[in-house]
Design brief:
Elements (H helix, E strand, L loop, with lengths): L5 E3 L2 H8 L10 E2 L2 E6 L6 E7 L4 E6 L4 E6 L3 E7 L4 E7 L4 E5 L2 E5 L19 E8 L5 E7 L7 E6 L5 E8 L2 E6 L5 E6 L6 E8 L4 E10 L6 E7 L5 E6 L3 E5 L5 E6 L5 E7 L5 E6 L16 E5 L9 E2 L5
Parallel strand pairs: 2-22, 8-26
Antiparallel strand pairs: 1-3, 3-25, 4-5, 5-6, 6-7, 8-9, 9-10, 11-12, 12-13, 13-14, 15-16, 16-17, 17-18, 19-20, 20-21, 21-22, 23-24, 24-25
Length: 323
């Protein structure tokens, strides 16, 4: 499928594609004109981040062990092949990237050169890998782990501080996933996709220290929606959440009210982000999911693009410039 092919979705077509998941409908369903931005077809794409300085999108192929960089003008390139799984990438103040890999946290410059040995949490076992992460408003990088065999409660959410120390924020996590912050930095949103009846949770957040406080179950995901996965926060402070297995992004108010459901062209979206000059380009990474090769959508694993009805916000950057 070429980069200029456009998917204009109608309810009938999506009903055929997704099957029983859409039976009964959703009063908040809306439609966007999606096109393939990156014809990647990777097994598990994740954590896209827009860099407004270079006007590029960085994202990861988790199982392929690669960090990609995409320019709307020049196309997609593999910035670096790490040879191990990589769960998330973030931007660094002054240029370059921070990434959460199977070996630990690493830093990569804009040419794709790894700058130092990995920084690994002391309690991170060989039976887990990093899965998703993002930088907070004060420049720390949060990223969490999941067991390679999906065993419950073996993962953790970690915080890489700007002095390069590591703090465990939440333990006994099953599949650490979407994370983001309210525009004023007072609330952290978080998803453990592996917990029974996965939910979107909010935590009181202390920006000065990076510590979390009291927890609220913000959204209890309906079984028919799929599983909440990656998330991003827009200019109004609303959450855009990808639903694994649900072929949709859902937008929630800061209080957890469902505002809209935006269907996407494949069954397994993983994480959305906003980009472009005015942050109204809506990108979403996707995956093959649990379907076998005969059932898999031909566009699974591609990165999709649509024009969003509302703008996003620039991504936060890790606060220690590379040297």
């Amino acid at each position: 499928m070429g980069v200029d092919d456009t998917f204009v979705l109608d309810l009938f077509a999506r009903g055929l594609h997704v099957g029983e998941m859409l039976l009964g409908g959703d009063e908040h369903e809306s439609f966007l004109n999606w096109k393939v931005a990156i014809d990647a077809r990777v097994e598990l794409g994740e954590r896209p981040v827009w860099d407004e300085v270079s006007n590029t999108l960085v994202w990861v192929d988790i199982n392929g062990g690669t960090i990609h960089r995409y320019s709307p003008q020049l196309g997609d390139e593999v910035l670096v092949d790490l040879g191990v799984s990589v769960g998330a990438v973030g931007l660094v103040r002054g240029g370059g990237y921070v990434a959460a890999t199977e070996l630990g946290f690493i830093f990569v410059d804009t040419s794709g050169r790894v700058l130092a040995d990995p920084i690994r949490p002391n309690d991170m076992g060989d039976d887990v890998r990093f899965n998703d992460g993002a930088c907070d408003p004060c420049g720390r990088f949060f990223a969490g782990t999941t067991a390679k065999d999906s065993s419950p409660k073996l993962g953790s959410l970690y915080r890489l501080n700007t002095d390069l120390s590591i703090t465990t924020v939440i333990d006994e996590v099953t599949e650490s996933n979407g994370i983001g912050w309210s525009p004023d930095g007072s609330i952290m949103y978080y998803v453990d996709s592996g917990e029974p009846n996965a939910a979107i949770r909010s935590f009181v957040f202390d920006s000065a220290s990076g510590n979390i406080g009291s927890e609220t179950k913000l959204v209890s995901a309906h079984e028919s929606w799929g599983v909440p996965d990656g998330l991003v926060v827009d200019v109004d402070g609303c959450l855009w959440v990808a639903f694994w297995g649900g072929a949709a992004l859902r937008r929630f108010s800061p209080l957890g009210h469902l505002l809209e459901t935006y269907l996407v062209p494949v069954k397994y979206p993983t994480c959305p982000t906003f980009g472009g000059k005015d942050f109204t380009d809506l990108y979403v990474t996707t995956a093959w999911g649990d379907d076998d090769v005969l059932q898999r959508d031909a566009n699974a694993g591609n990165v999709f693009l649509a024009v969003a009805p509302i703008a996003g916000r620039p991504a936060y950057r890790f606060g220690r410039p590379l040297r």
